Structure formats: C-alpha cells, structure tokens
Amino acid sequence: MAGSLLSDAGQRLEQALKYTSISEDAVESLKFPQTSLTVSIPVRMDDGSLKVFQGYRVRYDDTRGPGKGGVRYHPSVTLDEVQSLAFWMTFKCAALSLPFGGAKGGITVNPKELSRMELERLSRGYIDAIADFIGPDVDILAPDVYTNAMIMGWMMDQYSIIKRQICPAVVTGKPITMGGSLGRETATAMGAFYVIQAMMPKFDQIPEVTTVAVQGFGNAGAILAELLFRAGYKVVAVSDSQGGIYSKHGLDIPNIRQFKDSSRRIQALYCDDTVCHTAAETVVSNEELLALDVDVLVPAALENQITEANAANVRAKMVFEVANGPITSAADKILDEKGIYVFPDILVNAGGVTVSYFEWVQNRSGLYWMLDEINQRLKFKMVEEAERIWAIARDLSIPMRTAAYVHALSRLGEAISAKGTRDYYLNSH
Ligand code: NAD
Fold first, then answer.
1. Other C-beta atoms within 10 Å of 50: how many?
2. Could you tell me the CATH superfamily of domain 187-348?
3. How many angstroms separate the CA atoms of 259 and 216, rounded?
4. In 3-state terms, what secondary structure has residue 301?
C-alpha cells in the first residue's frame, strides 16, 4: 500500500487480521485498490477561459457487489485520499452487510470559487470523463464533502443523456423529484444518532447529563447536533472551518442552524457565514474544541483531525467518528492508552450509505417508501450491526474499531473465498 493516508488505513486492516482467519488470498487482494482512474476535466469558465480540473474515481473492491461511494469536491483532494476513502467504503458496506463493494470519487477544486454554472459544467464534465467506469450495476455515486443533491441530480442527468435512457440508480442522494429517497439528507446524522443512543446505556450515560462537542457543522454534523439537542443532550460546542463556539450551559442548536442556513450563496449550497457569528458564546478554535472536557466528542468535518500531535490533549470519554478517518492510527493508540472509547467511522457514519442502498433499491424496484419505513429500517440496521460489533469488541477485548474491521473482514473474506481460494485451486489438481 503506497501513500500516507492509504497506508494508514491499511494499518487498521493489519490490526484486525490478527483476530480473523480469512484466507491469504483474501488478505492479498484487499491490500490494493482494484482500479484507480484519474481524469482531466476541461471546463469553460464564465469569463470564456478554459480551466482543466483533476478528477478521480477509485473502485477498491467489488467482490460483495457494485462499487459504492461519494464524490468529494475539495482543494485538497488527491488520488491517495480517494483511494483511502474507497478502502473505508469497502469495509463500511461489509460491516453493515450492504450488497456493495467500496468506491469513491473526487475533484481537486474549491467549489466556493465557482459560479453555479461553472459548478454544473464541472459536474457534468466529470460524468463525461468517468461514464464508462460507472453504472447502476458497476459503481454508484453519492454526495460527500461539498457535494449535494443538486449536484447528484446533474450527474444522474448527464449519465442518462450519455446512455440515452433514464438511469436513476447510478447515483444516490439525488433530489426527491429525480428518484431520491426520503430521509437521505438526514441519514448519516440519523444513523450516528441511533448508534449513540444504543451505546449510551452501556456507559450508564443518560442524555440530560451528557455533554457533547461537534467539530464540523455541515450536513452530517449540524443535523446530528440538532438530533442530540432535541433528545436532551447538552451540546456545548460546535465548529466549522472558520472556528467554533462553546457554552458550558449548552448551545441552542436549532437557532445556530437557522442562522447558518439564512446566509448562504450559490443556490443554498455553500454557507458564507460561520457559527462564530451567531453568538455571545465563547469563541473556541478547532484545536480547543477537540480538547474540551466533554463526555462525547464528534469529529464531523474532515480526516486527520486527531493525530499524534494532539491526541494527548483529548479529554472526551467517548469519540464517535462521523467524519471519515478523523483519527490517525497513531492517535488511536494514544486515545486507547488514555482509556478513551472510540466508535469508528465505518460504523458511526454508515447511515448515509445505508439509505443510499435503500434509494438504489427503490430506484430499481420503482416502489418508493415512506419516511417512517426508511428510518425504521435504518435504525434496525444501525443498531443491529452496532450491537454485533460491540459483542465482538467485548468478547475479544479489542477496541470497537478493530472489532468493526474484524466484522467486515469476515464478510469480505467469505465473499472472496466463495469465488475460489488457493486451497480450492491446489486441490483441483
Ligand atoms: P459538509 O461539507 O456538509 O460539512 C463539512 C463541515 O466541516 C462544514 O461545516 C465545514 O465548515 C467544516 N469544516 C471543514 N474543515 C474544517 C476544519 N478544519 N475544522 C472544523 N470544521 C471544518 O460535509 P458533510 O457531508 O457533513 O461531511 C462531513 C464528514 O462526514 C466528511 O468526512 C464526510 O466524508 C463524512 N460523511 C458524510 C456523509 C454524508 O452523507 N454527508 C456520509 C458519510 C460520511
């Protein structure tokens, strides 16, 4: 495994391997991404000039089903990052027993600098470039950081134009009117909320006396903060890319969300303002937020937020990873030594891909479900798999992250072996 992020992700695999008995073939094939595509996307800018953007789509493994994974628009997107995210998707889909492999995509761009028309041309150009590499039975896209339902709608439309037929199941997280599922916007936060609710009694924690800090006030973080607030948790700190706010009495999350929502640009896509402008509350930096003395810390922004450099400062009792890869493997060790319980991304934020799966099923069957049914199915899946992973962690006395990888690995190993293993071929002579 080359590359820092991907090799860091690979260390999780190594740790989990000690506790599983999957075949050598399976281990070998999971060490590398199956296919990595890099594309150049020429975009005609509003001023008439041409700009070329770099885009990526990686299919890590599709043994358990078509690739599934979001598309990220961010200036720091690299192939290494996309490969690591595709790796995580592979394990997430297996951990949740969804019939998908893992994939991911991204474009190196600061979308806040583009007009809406430029953003649309870029999104359609990306689909033109990767169309032969994706499909409802091959690799299915979804939103990720700085992409949303509107962008997914453009992508689905562009793919349908290329294929000359309506193909809703190639993209999930679409607008409802284009075949999107009810509950998709809130799914990641809802899924994380169900896991938190299921785990709290194991620590004798009740919402009313549980303090929470949330890093990242976007789709996942802000909705989760509000769900927790409404369930009675004391959300004492939230932050976004420009900083954070803290109040030991708890913040009024619905008010803060309303403020952020009222000050957006580019068709309600990117927020211009920051949570820091909301209040008389104490302003804290993101570093300070991560070090707050709270019961629950929720990193819901980007990867690599808790590293070897700052892990020793973390004082939370539990960390629920809503972002993908917010804790490095070196930081994991430090948190573990400090007795901080980490609930891993591949479980906690799997609500998004789970409802994406429901959307894909609805698109293919043509029958659309009610919101209650979706949330009920989501809750069942999240709680069921969280309890299974909890049981593995308890039985083997290992951290929840390792347990989640053990759980996913056994499903992946079984699927890879079902295709034929070394023993099978050796014995056939
Ligand atoms: P988003 O773009 O809606 O929000 C990201 C938020 O993080 C924004 O508030 C932004 O200001 C903030 N942020 C950026 N850099 C920051 C920093 N250095 N410190 C603090 N805050 C910072 O994205 P999202 O969809 O909420 O995704 C957030 C994380 O959750 C990502 O890691 C993503 O991969 C993961 N995730 C999201 C989904 C989903 O369905 N939205 C599903 C699974 C995982």
1. 8
2. NAD(P)-binding Rossmann-like Domain (3.40.50.720)
3. 15
4. coil
Candidate list 18, 68, 92, 104, residue with the active-site label: 104
- Read off the pLDDT of residues 84-123 as tens digits, 9 standing for 90 and up: 999 999 999 999 999 999 999 999 999 999 999 999 999 9
Q: Which residues line ligand 1 (CB under 6 A)?
A: 144-146, 188, 215-221, 239-241, 286, 300-302, 322-324, 349, 352
> What's the pTM?
0.90
The amino acid at 316: A
**CATH top class, domain 32-178:** alpha beta
Every domain of the chain and the residues it spans: 32-178, 187-348
- H helix intervals, 231-365: 253-261, 286-290, 329-337, 345-348, 351-365
Q: Are strands 50-61 and 67-74 parallel, antiparallel or unpaired?
A: unpaired
Alpha helices (runs of H) in 78-183, residue ranges in sequence order: 79-95, 116-130, 149-163
φ, ψ (nearest 5 deg) of residue 304: 55, 40
Pocket test residue of 152, 256, 310, 349 for ligand 1, highest count of atoms within 8 A of CB: 349
